[in-house]
Amino acid sequence: MKIIVVGAGAVGSYLAKLLSSEGKDVHVIESDEERAAEMQEALDALVIVGNGASAATLEEAGARNADLLIAVSNSDGVNILACHTARQLGVKRTVARVEDPGLREGVDQLGVDVVIDPSATAAQELVTLVKETGVSEMAHFADGKLVLLGGIVTPQSPLARQPLSQLRLRSAEWGWVVAALVRHGKTIVAHGDTQVLAGDHALLMTTADNVERATKLLGLRKVRIDRVVIVGSTRLGELTAEEMIKNGFSVVLVDRDRARCSQLASRHPKAVVVHGDATDPDVLSELELGPSDAVLSLTGWDEVNITVCLVAKALGAASTIARFNRIRYVSLLSGIGIDAAVSSRLLAASAILRFVRHGRIQQVVTFSDTDAEAIEVEVTENAPAVGKSLIDLELPRGVVIGGISRGETTFVPDGSTRIRAGDHLIFFALPKDIEASSALFAPR
Predict the structure, then answer these.
(1) Which of 438, 442, 435 shows the shortest CA–CA distance to 379?
(2) Which residues of the chain are under the pLDDT cut of 50?
(3) Cα(139)–Cα(141) distance, integer angstroms
């Protein structure tokens, strides 16, 4: 598959590295010469210096034979025009990051097949994480009927130190399955003989009506949040403030730039705006953080976000969430002052990967501390899996079937469940097993 990525910023560079590591034929277009040189050193791919909206540059990148163009530069206009020009040159499918809502109307007529806005998606995710305190991830599949929860297993969890097969037998009245554990940075795809330890990052799938049971199974304690303190006047910070206010939370915005604080106060009259450096304990101390407060550090600097969360937790905040660019930080710091993390890179990857994976892919979810993916696929009539039970499929050990949506019925399957054409099936897989597993459910 040949893919062109326009823009080598945080999102573009992450996607280019991910896709090239999977053996895709990736070409990157970047207008900044220094950034392009850095990318060329880091990537096993062709990096071209130029304007991604230019027909000549796109020709040089091989647009006439490309399957997919991903335009994720910092300019909405460049992204839209790049897609328009690419489609004229013959690119089969285009994806553009467009942040300005006023520019989204009618872009499909300009050659943009899919619009993504990672910051807007992240703001929605942050609302979910604040409502479901203790949960580090919550992804919805099958139109919201199936939910994948992530969380750090506590010593109080019924899962701790028991084989999963025994525990599932004792709780057979409701459906759940642990898809994977991340332990000391290593992904363990869960099976019946897997033992869960306190401190593991568990990814568990269940039906939407059993989310509360699932959080208790992980040993997570839900806390009611009334006030959300948002640090950083980034676009993500402002979008999140708007979403939190819509959802009934009291919101405090903190920024170290006095001029920006004046702008924030005029744009968000329902929020309290505080001028100060949130890494200074004295600034957060004045907010008298307590057990009904969540602190979200959403600046553009990982180190600042880490420090703010650690300070906030020490001062008594119930929940802290950090924005990260360097994904490696997440696995190193989870559970020691940072309850959850968001990343525009990962959210962009999740939105785009469904166009890269073959088959009738409905959704792909990526994670902060494992390279495995959760994938929702529609099973085709000619699929090898149709009519077979899960136990007869002999799936690779790196694959777990987490849930099935079949018409009006949604459930977590067991080994005797037979696959039917038209099923929406959610499976969790390590990278090496994704293509082979997808072919079982929706062959090329």
Answers:
(1) 442
(2) none
(3) 7
